Amino acid sequence: MPRKMLIDTDMGSDDAVALIMALRHSDIEVIAVTTTYGNVARAQATRNALVVADLCGVSVPVHSGVERPLVRPFRDATWFHGGDGLGDLNLPEPLTPPAEEHAVNAIIAAAEQNPGLMIVTLGPLTNLALAVLQAPHIIPLIDRCVVMGGAACTYGNITPAAEYNIWCDPEAARQVFLSGLPVEMVGWEFCIGEHALSNDEIAAVNAIGTPLADFALRCNRVAIEAYHTQTREHGLSLPDPVAMAIAIDPTIATQSSLHYVEVETQSELTRGLTLVDKLDVAEDTRNRDVWAQAISAGKNVRVTWEIDIPRWKALLMACLR
Fold first, then answer.
1. Which of 69, 193, 214, 301 has its CA 20 to 30 A from that of 140?
2. CB atoms within 10 A of CB 95
3. CA distance 6 to 206
4. Is there a contact between 285 and 240 (Cβ–Cβ < 8 Å)?
């Protein structure tokens, strides 16, 4: 029986590939997509989600959500994904309109109606933070909460300290991380180096020859250039599809462990830092005041440390066929 999934997304070009993976996988039933600001403005994200669902030939409700962080100004990532978030392909208007219900209410309703729901977040966490603040009773109804975000004990992609999704709304991320949700953090580090698609692997996707494989590459044409500008590496960086691969098949995460994780919200220098207590030093009495909320929440995040790179790429290829 397919596992039920809700996807919360800011629908840039890598989000599009992740959404294709979920909509195309026989073991997953996407019951709703909720959209937010991030890679692009919320309205554009909603349009993009509807367009991708059309391309997959799948009818799924797409709920438009919040349009800015809880307390901070919004800064998009169109420089990486293109002005429309999908490589400036000038795609036609979607065939169906968005659902009327607001994304926050849709998340609450989905959890209430589908105990054991899996939530996968691919953008800033504002929608989910507001949902658990308004309806904390949904927390035990959610079986997994796979978060593409953060950077575990390494550098970020928007500042030296932080990954973009968490940096966008660190207050929301902190709320989610300390809420009691079963958060699984899949950090930015799994989309660089060998985790990214090499030029040969991009050619292999192109050789698949299906409309979805073609779209997956075309919508990332701006991202391929931006990735090289950012890292000096050649290839296609796909953070959201890596997280989706782990959501679909948890064994792709070959090493993970539970830890206290805090999110920095006070310092502008390290805003959005995901501070992972890998050695459990928070339990030292000398640190308890600083880590009080994390300790009261218990070890709150399952942190991904290593993944099976060939298997994540094989899963991607299978979905694009």
1. 69
2. 10
3. 29
4. no
| Model pLDDT, residue 285 | 64
Tokens of 52: 């991708």
What pLDDT score was predicted for residue 263? Answer: 96
Give just the sign of the alpha carbon dihedral 93, 96, 100, 103.
negative
Whole-angstrom CA distances from 297 to 126, 181, 205, 211, 267 are 20, 10, 43, 46, 22
Q: Domain-by-domain residue ranges, the chain? A: 3-320
Q: What is residue 288's predicted lDDT score, i.e. its pLDDT?
A: 67
Phi, psi of 139 (to 5 degrees): -55, -50
Residue 111: per-residue pLDDT? 98
Helix (H, G, I), strand (E, B) or coil at 223: helix
Query: In this structure, what token pair is assigned to residue 167?
Result: 């940096």
Superfamily of domain 3-320: Ribonucleoside hydrolase-like (3.90.245.10)
| Sites in the chain below the pLDDT cut of 50 | none
Does this model's pTM top 0.85? My answer is: yes
